[in-house]
Amino acid sequence: MWQIFHKLGSPKWFFGIATRLMPWLLAGALALLAVGLVWGLAFAPKDYLQGNSYRIIFIHVPSAFLAQSVYIMMATAGVVTLVWRMKLADVFVKAVAPVGLVLTFLALFTGAVWGKPTWGTWWIWDARLTSMLILLFLYGGAIALDRAINDEKSAARAVAVLVLVGVVNIPIIKYSVEWWNTLHQPATFKLTEKPSMPAEMWVPLLLSVLGLYLLFGWLACLRMQTEILAREQRTRWVKEHVLARRAG
Fold it and tell me: Residues 190-201: pLDDT tens digits?
């Protein structure tokens, strides 16, 4: 396990693994998203209360799930950066922070579109919505802080500290509907309970969630490879890689 852990700290080793994984991640993501979204948006039954307006759940829920998951991954990488000083952990944080920002914005936007016919308003200072807005600011703050500090190592440590401080917001997002009286509905999926919706609804939703996670994996690998090439451009293996691509 420790050998694998140290290998993950090698940009060259990760670059090769990511190159082999990316086609499978992309193929799986496109297949699951195609089935899940087409099934959910076109063929799933209407909700008995919300009608067809609920169908935005097939975009909103996967985006919200992944936006929170990405931040937890960033916090974990932040610990690795501060404790073990692994360059690849910082590469991961820098690569996925913009992805998390877009996912959080998409979750907020689709939630507003869904809230208009359901609540009669685009926005309300609901506990879940407000904590998700804070998550958007945390992503933006991490990106801005990284760009504001010129020294790579100092920027990595500063961003890691910021992300770790902000991770307290994740349980607030998760449990906000239980801790406060909010308009937002409870969690769609719970590991300890049977889904509250029929299989014709939750199966395509689950496929969409899994598909978006795989798409994130592909995008994270792609962005990390780009960042690695920029950082390691003077190393021999990167020069050989660039020459091989040009020759091919």
Answer: 656 677 788 999
